[in-house]
Write a structure and sequence with these properties.
Chain lengths: ~675, ~400
Amino acid sequence: MASRKNRKSHLPKRLNVLFFAVFILFSALILRLGFIQIVQGDTYERDLEEASEPVTRIDAPRGVMYDRNGEIAVDNQLILSLTYTNSSSVSDEERLDIAEKLSGYLEMDTEGITDRDLKDYWLLTREEEAESLLSEEEMASASEDGVDPYDLQLEKITDEQLSDIQGTELEVVAVWREMISGYNDSPQRVKENLTREEAHEISVRLEELPGVDLLRDSNRQYVFDESFPGFFGSVGSIPRETIDEYLALGYDRSDLVGTSFLEEEYESALRGVKGELLDSEEAAGNGAETTGSRGNDLVLSVDMALQQDLETIVDEQVGGQSGNFVNDEDAYAVMIEPSTGEILAASGYQNQVGTVSSSFEMGSTVKMATVMAGLQEGVVTADTYINDTPISLPGSSDISSASDTIGSVNYLGALEKSSNIYMSEIAMRLADYERGGTFNSDKVQEAYDTMRYYYNQFGLGTETGIDLPSESAGISGGYGNPGNLLYLSFGQFDTYTPMQLAQYVATIANDGYRIEPHFVKEVRQSNPDKSNMGSISQQIQPSIMNKLSVDDEYIDMAQEGMLEVVEGSSGTARSYFGDAPYEVAGKTGTAQVTVRSEGSGELVNNAVNQAFVGYAPYDNPEVAIAVIVPYTYLEENGGRNGVANTIARQAMDAYFELKEERPEVDAENEEVIEQQEEETGEETEE
Amino acid sequence: MNGNYPSTEKQYDINMFFVLFLFAVISCFYIYFAQQMGQYDTNFYIRQGIFFVLAFAVAFVTVHFDYEYYLNMHWVLYGFGLFLLLALDIIGPNEMIAPLTNGAVSWFTLPIIGSVQPSELMRIILIITLSAIIYRHNQRYKENATLKTDFQLLGKMALPILPVVLLLARQPDMGSVMLIGAVFVALMVVSGISYKIVSVLIGVPLLAFAVFIFLFFQIPAVLDATIFALMDQYQVNRINGWLNPFEYADEGFQTVRALTAIGAGQLLGTTDDSIYIPEAHTDFIFAVISSMHGFLGGAMVITLYFVLLYQILMIAFRSNHAFGKYLCAGFIGMLAFQIFQNIGMSLGLLPVTGFTLPLLSYGGTSVIATMFALGMIMSIRYHSKSYMFD
């Protein structure tokens, strides 16, 4: 009895022990809960906002691009893409299996397969042979040296072994390499633009292809075919180096973004608002879906009709004439509206993007800037006459003008007849140098600085501020010898881009106000009916970068000089523009350049850059143009003269012809009328 | 003692019924919200309500059944439970009535009744059986318990457990095996076995566990070569996902989701239900509660469980029949382990196993079995006899 009582009396105590353990466990739960929710709560909340992906987001198409007249220039085309979502839990074999199945239904391009892809694939699929590549000793020494044996295996594979992969297996490799190139848990496009048959074959077999999905994508479609896509830029997967920035903006890894030029510059506007589809098929039936919307549309300042005309003109003038060029035929032309900075057309024969990325010596076209610098600095006046005779400098070849019949000229004659000596004289005076004297190197440096100070104000040698992600500022020759200073004064030392040249002439036409050039006029909200533009969400206003620090009278004098170039009895552009039905101001340029021939590898020193700048009408400029035809031969060396001038003339003609046609053609188009009203509104504001 | 006429109080435990009613309401409420997350389109909360009505009826009937009868029929119950498990083992996997779900054969799918999980029933039967064994043993050796008899008791307890554990491991349902271990430990503590034996039997596994955790984080190579080499890959994955959820993103997927949802709940809860909580209405219902209503909601639920366990403890104290006390201890062990395991896994403390949260998770078998067990507990109170001289 005593013992049993003893045992029984144990019971309440032991129940307490048990319950104490329960108490400890529950306390641990409460503590842990408090730690997670109260101490770490903020972190998790942030994680939740960033990482949660409860819904499938449906890609929305990018905004389209209209030209200045409301014509669609860049459109979207709905395509189907095949995606594969890689996951760390899928084995290599399973992936290979899927790749093999997929290659049976897909037509893959095997061009882009690299040797490395083949080797990786080979090692993966031919395990036994792969093992026999390395002897055990090699394996051992590799692990001693800390070398990955895999790298050694890669080296050891022979081309012969690789050639084992043939025909359909190559297609498997093509599919496989796309499958493994994405991020884990994020869909990677294996093939874009599936054919109807491919999409059908795949869609009925999605069940047996884990990780594979079909995605509605939109592809860019260029309505005007070859015209202008260079500047439109391209759309592609997010580049790895910028992935973090895009993720921070709420992009998905699989998104397509603008990767160059306008597409990149205006990514934030063009980007569509994604639709959301609640996860799983169960929810789909409940209509738990929000539709996305197309990104905002861009209205370009470019007139696609003029753009096409300009391209045709350039084509006709330089196309198929490789004999006239040291290397490949090439030419650039930019047409700009001086008062707004709107780019009307921009063409590059080899590469349209060259208008902002390639720079050339622009020759005498820069002389207006030199004249204005000289006048403003007071080293010449309206009445300063300089006799055009060759200048010989110690340690430099003689400097002379292209024509030897110029005689004694003031600023007007110097521009009309394109006197290099007049410009050199300005440079020399800026450097306190007289013929036969000696150069003071400090003064020479000062003169370089002074001249570039003026040139920069026109946009020459500095960024134009154009609405593209990158542009070249041209190449400055630095402080050269005194002779180079003189060459700088007539455009044969520093190099400038065609866009800079266009901004330069537009600034002169615009009475000294330098305006940022831009390709995009407005951003508009997307309208489902693409034939009518949506409402304006952002108007790109002309942005004045600076006003020339040159007195207005000197600007007027430079403009008069440009008029003389066209209308003067010995004007260098008279033969090209003399009979034009509109009044043009312009300046020709022929820069002697030395360039290496890509064919022979020899230096060619009788090549020239032919250039032209101008604007019209003289009294109320509507259009300014800059043309550069680089590295050509002159007639005496088997080439052609005046190519740039001819391009400019025909482009100007095209502009005015289109202007005459337009109101009649588009009189019923409300958009155009509305636009014109806006334009006149802008003008009165100024 | 036998001469005293026993009188029964015949009292319903209104307090416990109230707590159970609260659980029923909370359960339906949060299952409703879990359902709003768009994973499923079945009306789980209505079905859960129906389960609760049935379960309350079962409990009410059980209350009136004198628990002392179990002393005489526990072998019958045990035989029935074992039969079910054996049947499952032999039939399954079978598409029709014993399908393979989530990699294990744990369920019967029966017409009309629906899915039944025999292990839910078996754990309760095991508690009854073990309690009866301990009671009989202690009656027999009431005068002269020695270390030798203690070992005999341990042996008697282990005997009925072994076949059950074997069958469960074959399903495989390691969670239930662990649960039975917890019940065993709880009953062993109260059985009166010498603390010397108890401390060794609890201390050694605890030490082993501590060594395991140490090795995992400090010298993982040892584990890879020994224990992990013997385990199935999915089990290794689970351990990785548990101890290192953010690194083993696939295996730790559920843990990370649950942790993030709970963490974002902060003090008062969040309305951001954008995170996908897997199995939100069953295994991870606690994540839904503490995500929606924060620390307050989570702590309230944990407290409510504590109250329930405390009520069972009080019944154990008041009962003057040792068998009743053992039953209570067994159920405390079972419930406490289930609760700790389920909430612990939501909080990333323990590995993910298919444990439901008793009384809150969606599931007919679980709710009815738990209520049946609690009915038995209330029956101890209801049939508690007061002796004049004791």
